[in-house]
Amino acid sequence: MNETAAPRTGLTRQIAERGNSVRFDDLQARVKTIATHSILDFVGLSIASANLPLIKALIAEALDQGGREESSAVGSFTRLPAAWAASVNAGAGHVLAYDDVNMVIPGHATAVAWPSSLALAEISDASGRHVLEAYVAGFETTCVLGELLEPSHYDMGFHASGTLGAFGAAMSASRMLQLDIDTTAQALSVAATMASGLKGAFGTMLKPFQVARATGNGVLAARLAKRGLGGRDDLIEREQGFAVTHSKSALPLELPRSETGSYMLQTLYKYHAACYLAHSPIEGAALARQRPGFDPDLVQAVTVTVNPMAGKVCNIDRPKTDPEVGYSIRTLVAMSLLKMGVTRPDDLKVSRVAEGNVLPLADRVTIAFDPSLPDTASRVHLRTDRGDFEIATDVGNPEEDLSKQERQITNKVRLLAEPAIGPVKTSQLIERVLNLPDLASLRPIAEALRPST
């Protein structure tokens, strides 16, 4: 076989083919389990965020525009058009910056793949297996585009969850609509014309808004492709297409594959309500705090060394708004050293940061950069009245024990959802999501998102 021969099809069609080939029975058992964990995590976050300003604004705009009542959305008593419902649910699950992350993107694949799958599942009354196939297909699509275009895409300032996420949402929607490969390729090209997102919006409500619109646009792209809209089946790789205008990476002829067999296996979960690039410094500070005799009042200076990527994402000096707190390594390290929780979304408030010794300690924190460090690693060096010490951590390794992971995510979901819907409904929702492949219909999950009358 000639290894240098051109592939039978271009990258856009290869992505369409791969997404259409996802079958439930072929998925690794571990992939199926992680998929339900990610969906459960996201559903809990969506419910907790139903009354936040972004979600209220999206719902109000959707209701003003009108349209067919198709799909359930958190915070909305009535169903919304599917693209709007997908946008609302995506924004709700991502607005707290607490959803799962995959560093291949780097970003949030569940945030686009799940809401787009769910919105269309409610219309067709699809089974859990069908939805899981669509979700995994969209998740893998978002990740493989990350492998194709990163790191330059992200380094150029693009918010990958918003840009690449539009393709993932389009793939999930295409699978839910049972589009063939030709039409799916057109859907991906339609999505390419709408894919957008800027890292300059981080620390504001525009960040989750970008994810919301990417998801809704993905649903729209698939539905329009089904109606015949298209014109290109190579808009990712062609000259003046998406890849060359959004990345400096050289494109391969063949679509890459995850070394583990599925990008889903590289999923990481957040147990701090902050940017994932700040998690390692938070953990390092927590370990420092646990040293015998540690006293934050004796800290003279702290140097946090991270990969330069963190400097472009979560290096806000003095947060002025609540969302900015989760993107300020200095502030988060100070809070962790002071044993102030950063686990609940309500922990990250400017008013809370202003209390006590957070700001004086944060002023003693310096951020340094080391390109050799993984994006998920850090070194926290403390100079104290009792001497110097340094702690290195890396939060880039997925949990091996899936039973432990399920307990952690279940506890997190209870923490998030019970104040909104109560313990009984939360328990029912947890059971349904964890057993999603066995469900004949996803309507009970979708309907649980809407507020009770």
Walkthrough of the structure:
This protein has helices at about 10-20, 30-50, 55-65, 80-95, 110-125, 130-150, 150-155, 160-175, 180-190, 205-225, 240-245, 280-290, 310-315, 320-325, 330-335, 350-355, 360, 400-435, 445-450, and strands at about 300-305, 365-370, 375-385, 385-395. The protein is α+β, with helices and mostly antiparallel strands and about 450 residues long. It folds into 2 domains: about 10-270 and about 405-450, Orthogonal Bundle (2-methylcitrate dehydratase PrpD), CATH 1.10.4100; about 275-395, 2-methylcitrate dehydratase PrpD (60s Ribosomal Protein L30, Chain: A), CATH 3.30.1330.120. The chain has a 4-stranded mixed sheet with strand order 2-1-3-4. Helix 1 (about 10-20) packs antiparallel against helix 6, helix 3 (about 55-65) packs antiparallel against helix 4 and helix 4 runs antiparallel to helix 10 (about 205-225). The radius of gyration is 22 Å and the shape is globular. Mean pLDDT is about 95; it is low at about 1-5.
Could you list some keywords that capture this structure?
single chain; 453 residues; alpha+beta; 2-methylcitrate dehydratase PrpD; 60s Ribosomal Protein L30, Chain: A; four-stranded mixed sheet; 19 helices; 51% helix; 6% strand; disordered N terminus
